[in-house]
Amino acid sequence: MLKHKYSVFIFFVLLAILFFTKASILFYVLLFLSFLAITTWGAFDIRLNYFTKAICKSNATNKKNIAITFDDGPHEKTPEILDVLMEYNAKATFFCIGKQIEKHPEILKRILNEGHIIGNHSYSHSKWNGFFSTQKMVSEIEQTNILVSKLVNKKVRLFRPPFGVTNPNIARAVVKTNQIVVGWNIRSLDTVIESENAILNRIKNRLKPGGIILLHDTSAKTVSVLEQLLLFLQSEGYQTVTIEELLEISAYEN
Ligand SMILES: [Zn+2]
To answer: Separation of 184 CA from ligand 1 center, angstroms?
Structure first.
């Protein structure tokens, strides 16, 4: 809880000031609404590092490196994504959901065999994830790490919270499970935007060395966007690398 601590402190200082100056109720309402707005923004924008430290890009911008990350697999579409990555000799990072690993263990193995990196994206990817207790969140992370460990004998260290949502419980769970939180700084919105061109242009407009792109290995649309993106990256002289290589960190415990 980085910036959240300061917000809480400022909130109570302002509350005390309102109390001692016998301010009108309107100022209390304004204070509560502002605090709520800041906290909500902090919960939904992982780049703010509001509740927990999340690595969202590399600061080493001297190399033209870029990391493509795929969330929500392994999925039926993942093999097609892997084929395209192989064709362009690109390496990527896959933040996998535990439940999906149970459905597609062979795809998880293939991801690793082809030189890509696995990260943890919770066990259930529940839409109620933001309301889970610390203990429940710990078990969400541990269940997936155990699955990966049993299948491929790797102890995962990289975690990406579902929907990029963070809060005090998730922050504590990450510390307890010794995970490194990895976010992104280029959100493709590939699950929201219909047009492939619009998705591609969104990425191109935000592209900078050291960037982390968020995609999902769950649709034919993304397979097609990936092919065009890799062509573009190649023509611009970018190297597409894993999170491990981009951030010079180790993705697994020894
Ligand atoms: Zn997700």
So the answer is: 12
In the numeric block, the tokens 């990072």 are attached to 93
Query: Of these residues, 104, 125, 216, 217, which one is catalytic?
Result: 216
Instruction: Report how far residue 5's alpha carbon sits from residue 106's, in angstroms, rounded to the nearest whole number.
Output: 43
Q: What confidence tens digit (pLDDT) does each residue in 14-32 have?
A: 999 999 999 999 999 999 9
Q: What domain range is 27 assigned to?
A: 3-44
Pair (219, 93) in one structural domain: yes
pLDDT digits (tens, 9 = 90+) for 110-142: 999 999 999 999 999 999 999 999 999 999 999
In a domain, 245, yes or no: yes
Instruction: Answer yes or no: do 113 and 206 share one domain.
Output: yes
Q: How far apart are alpha carbons 165 and 125 in whole angstroms?
A: 11
Is 75 a known active-site residue? no
pLDDT in tens, 214-245: 999 999 999 999 999 999 999 999 999 999 99
217 in catalytic set: no
